[in-house]
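ok trying again, last paste got cut off:
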Amino acid sequence: MAGGSVANGGETMEPITVLIILAIFLVAVLYSSVGHGGASGYLAVMALLAVAPEVTRPTALSLNLFVASIATIQYYRAGHFSWRLFLPFAVASIPMAYIGGTIQLPTSVYKIVLGVILMLAAARLAWNLKSDDYVKDHPVWLSFAVGAVLGLLSGLVGVGGGIFLTPLLLLMHWSNAKTAAGVSALFIFVNSAAGLAGAWGKMPTLPSEVWFWIGAAIVGGLIGSTLGAKRFDSLTLRRVLAVVLVVAGAKLIFT
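nice, full thing came through this time. structure:
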């Protein structure tokens, strides 16, 4: 891994390590405020700060587990969740996320795929999606199909899939905004767990400073999901983050 690491013997952290910790904290706050784990944001941070590509996917999925679990609890406690909506998506996505986790793309291909995903994630963050009171049912088979595609993508790239599930739920009028956030949070958690399980046998040793990253993600997730489950609107800040994702995506695709 390029950049600094946590020094032994009570020495101070390298500036790059501190920067990564702060960036992960901010990403966790902003993503969890809309019910997301933040994997695309973590991947962008690691891409921009030259973390080794082979560790970015398992690291992002690991951080997702902590933040998405916090967001799930917060939204569930606030009454913003639907098992009926969640289960068909999850049943199809979990095995596909596991399969995706077992697939190791060549670094050159992975960077391009990830770059495109970050660009799409940026569009989602910058887009001010609103919901109305009109919510309609949809065919269960469609939930299975969407869940399977997003699950495979989750395990393959290292995202939880919620960044794409939430806008779909709102645009198709399958859910209101708060319930979509709650459903997406648990969807991200189960896909991240399945993707990690699939990648376990080939997973490299994670950086020693990953525990500091996890700590930053947990604190950020607690703050963001608590605010998001109530009335916090982070659109302006999310648009700033979207610019970061575009830069990171372009860096991955063109360098």
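cool. The longest helix spans residues 53-77. The chain has a mean pLDDT of 84.
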